[in-house]
Design goal:
By secondary structure, the chain is an alpha/beta fold. The protein has two domains: about 1-380, 3-Layer(aba) Sandwich (Rossmann fold); about 450-700, Glycogen Phosphorylase B (Rossmann fold). It has a six-stranded parallel β-sheet, sandwiched between helices. Strands 1, 4, 5, 8 and 9 form a five-stranded mixed β-sheet that branches. Strand 20 (about 555-560), helix 21 and strand 21 form a beta-alpha-beta unit. InterPro entries: Glycg_phsphrylas, Glyco_trans_35. Belongs to the glycogen phosphorylase family. One of its GO terms (cellular component) is cytoplasm. This is Alpha-1,4 glucan phosphorylase.
């Protein structure tokens, strides 16, 4: 490359992110085994396949224009994608609409509209183990006779232009994180990926040496032993009725047998407990789009309710609570309930989340089948989130404990021996400082903002959402600002507060929060009394490639959701392994991070889940806190008066009104504890040696949060396969 006058790093910068998801859940979908499961010696195969949609436009690019978020289409395929290979030979038909006919020789779904699913394969190489798994993404294609059969007979041009209607299915990612929007196109996307994937799985099952030996290959007895389908949230929930449809209508398997096969094959991972995020599709939409699936869901629900009624005679309310069909003005299908009854395993993604799943969200289902419910705490890949993004840190770790940690992150525990080693303490601090200088230079080059690299880099990067409480961070920034102005000569721990993340385009409050952050920055960053003691920066267009730059440079990681709302979080883990300290609530994986490193090595503050529940019973009254806490009152009054929006004094009335009168996430209730805790952060930061010792302890205790551990647990406890740690021989050597 050098001889061609090209620079590898420069080339790397040019490549577009494949932004095919929202926040953590979408990022998790990319964890296609990563080659964690090399074939077993005895059976030569635990292949892992990740399936999804090849969106033409991924999550929007975010621009900030006079402090407001503006969305731009993410044309990520503009210059082509060298990592994918189209596989037209595996193209498959997907059916929509039509009607159901019950005949003597079974049920037929007829008069459907067909869309073709074209697969694109991306290799997912494991780390130095000669294993490559496949991520297969489907793209929608109109069949060549589309709209040319009966309609538009006279209008050939119109008919060809109408191909877009079919191909729109894979056009764009819905940009909502933790929010359900019941749009027909979204339901089409969900069925599209499911129908194509299940045909693919069954084709592979039938043609493999594991498929039944009889000539017609109708033997599906062994299907659950050979295939495991993991449902990443409820978005692919249609896998359950679709597998039933294929087994019963197409393969002529007996209904009860088909149900047993389906349940043994499917497992469901729940990713959120927020009620507004749960998928509840109108029955009327199903009736039109997927009439056979609706019939199957009704039948499955009837079977399920008969069982519940037999176990709890006369408990009508329990039947209502547990039904897959929600009665009401608009009858809806509760996809989470469908997933629970159709799966042999249900898991949450952090211990506290899995407990909430059992004790509240699916309480009735847990009482019915407690053995179904498990926990699988999320993890992150140390290859991307340590080696690739923080080579300096990876190097000094390897120098001390060897390279084993790369594939067995628990080995980071060995760093505990070096917690008092002055050279190592100095090296860790030096790497952090270099990362900070590099990120400061990046900000200056790309966003023309100058920051003080000696300041504390205080970072909150995640999707903008009320439950993640970026507003609490804002109130702290305002409080610090008021303290500096009130006492300019007092010594003060300098901070650069960086907040980044995208707001769903239709989420008014989230967009107001971004405007508030940028407005606060405008005032603070231009106040001569403040100088470089305090800066507030909004990081534009937060995405994986920006995370790889900012996370290694962070000193403080903010994980401050209201207890009981963040299922797990994964950014929290990335910061921990990269040598930032965490300020956070006892929520999601923070709980386990504190358990691993010792609570005294994180800055834990605020209400626990029990306190939040108690406050709900008592009734949360924001005004009470506003009256009692003068610094809080001052901050809110400044926002209200237009101190941060002089050209539009009423700009933030909706935000203040929400905080004062209908704040579901109780920002004020944690304000006092948060400010106090931030004071402790300042105290420790003034003692660089002690700070760095805590950093080392955090890194040393982050081993649990490797995706290798997570995936191994899924394999053993849900999929029923033994992961093998031995690398298969390279292609140039014989296999046995």
């Amino acid at each position: 490359l050098q001889q061609l006058g090209l620079d590898l790093e420069e080339l790397e910068e040019i490549e577009e992110d494949a932004g095919l998801g929202n926040g953590g859940l979408g990022r998790l979908a990319g964890n296609t085994g990563g080659g964690e499961f090399p074939p077993h010696l005895e059976c030569m195969g635990t292949e892992a396949y990740g399936y999804g949609i090849r969106y033409e436009f991924g999550i929007f690019n975010q621009k900030i224009v006079d402090g407001w978020q503006v969305e731009e289409a993410d044309d990520w395929l503009r210059y082509g994608n060298p990592w994918e290979k189209a596989r037209p030979e595996y193209m498959l038909p997907v059916h929509f609409y039509g009607r159901v006919e019950h005949t003597a020789d079974g049920v037929k779904w007829i008069d459907t509209q067909v869309v073709l699913a074209m697969p694109y394969d991306t290799p997912v190489p494991g780390y130095k183990n000669n294993t490559v798994n496949t991520m297969r993404l489907w793209s929608a294609k109109a069949p060549n006779d589309f709209n040319l059969q009966e309609f538009n007979m006279g209008d050939y041009i119109e008919a060809v232009l109408d191909r877009n209607l079919a191909e729109n299915i894979s056009r764009v990612l819905y940009p909502n994180d933790n929010f359900f929007e019941g749009k027909e196109l979204r339901l089409k996307q969900e069925y599209f990926v499911v129908a194509a994937t299940l045909q693919d799985i069954i084709r592979r099952f039938k043609s493999s040496k594991f498929g039944c030996r009889d000539p017609v290959r109708t033997c599906f007895e062994t299907f659950p032993d050979k295939v495991a389908i993991q449902l990443n949230d409820t978005h692919p929930a249609l896998s359950i009725p679709e597998l039933m449809r294929i087994l019963v209508d197409v393969e002529k398997v007996d209904w009860d047998k088909a149900w047993e096969i389906t349940k043994r094959t499917c497992a469901y991972t729940n990713h959120t407990v927020l009620p507004e995020a749960l998928e509840r599709w109108p029955v009327s939409m199903f009736e039109k789009l997927l009439p056979r699936h609706l019939e199957i869901i009704y039948a499955l629900n009837q079977m399920h309710l008969d069982r519940v009624a037999a176990l709890y005679p006369g408990d009508i309310d329990r039947l209502r609570r547990m039904s897959v069909i929600e009665e009401g003005d608009c009858k809806r299908i509760n996809m989470a309930h469908l997933c629970v009854i159709g799966s042999h395993a249900v898991n949450g993604v952090a211990r506290i989340h899995s407990d909430i799943v059992k004790n509240s969200v699916f309480k009735d289902f847990y009482e019915l089948e407690p053995e179904k419910f498990q926990n699988k705490t999320n993890g992150i890949t140390p290859r991307r989130w340590l080696l690739l993004c923080n080579p300096g840190l990876a190097d000094i770790i390897a120098e001390k404990i060897g390279e084993g940690f790369i594939t067995d992150l628990s080995q980071l525990k060995k760093l505990l021996e070096f917690i008092d080693n002055e050279t190592f303490i100095r090296d860790v601090a030096k790497v952090k400082q270099e990362n900070k200088l590099k990120f400061a230079a990046y900000l200056e080059e790309h966003y023309k903002v100058k920051i003080n690299p000696m300041s504390m880099f205080d970072v909150q990067v995640k999707r903008i959402h009320e439950y993640k409480r970026q507003l609490l961070n804002c109130l702290h920034a305002i409080t610090l600002y008021n303290r500096v102005r009130c006492n300019p000569s007092k010594s003060f721990v300098p901070r650069t507060i960086m907040i980044g993340g995208k707001a769903a385009p239709g989420y008014h409050m989230a967009k107001m929060i971004i405007k508030l952050i940028t407005s606060i920055g405008e005032v603070i960053n231009n106040d001569p009394y403040v100088g470089d003691k305090l800066k507030v920066i909004f990081l534009e267009n937060y995405r994986v490639s920006l995370a790889e730059k900012v996370i290694p440079a962070a000193d403080l990681s903010q994980q401050i959701s209201t207890a009981g709302t963040e299922a797990s979080g994964t950014g929290n883990m990335k910061f921990m392994v990269n040598g930032a300290l965490t300020i956070g609530t006892m929520d999601g994986a923070n709980v386990e991070m504190a358990e691993e490193a010792g609570e005294e090595n994180l800055f834990i503050f605020g209400m626990r889940v029990e306190d939040v529940e108690a406050l709900d019973r008592k009734g949360y009254n924001a005004r009470e806190f506003y009256e009692r806490l003068p610094e809080l009152r001052q901050a809110i009054d400044q926002i209200t008066s237009g101190f941060f929006s002089p050209r539009d004094p009423g700009c933030f009335k909706d935000v203040v009104n929400m905080l004062m009168y209908h704040d579901r996430f109780k920002v004020f209730a944690d304000y006092e504890a948060y400010i106090k805790c931030q004071g402790q952060v300042d105290q420790l930061f003034m003692d660089p040696r002690e700070w760095t010792r805590k950093v080392i302890r955090n890194i040393a205790c982050s081993g649990k949060f490797s995706s290798d551990r997570t995936i191994t647990e899924y394999a053993r406890e849900i999929w029923g396969v033994e992961p093998s740690a031995t690398a298969i021989p390279p292609p140039n050597l014989p296999r046995n």
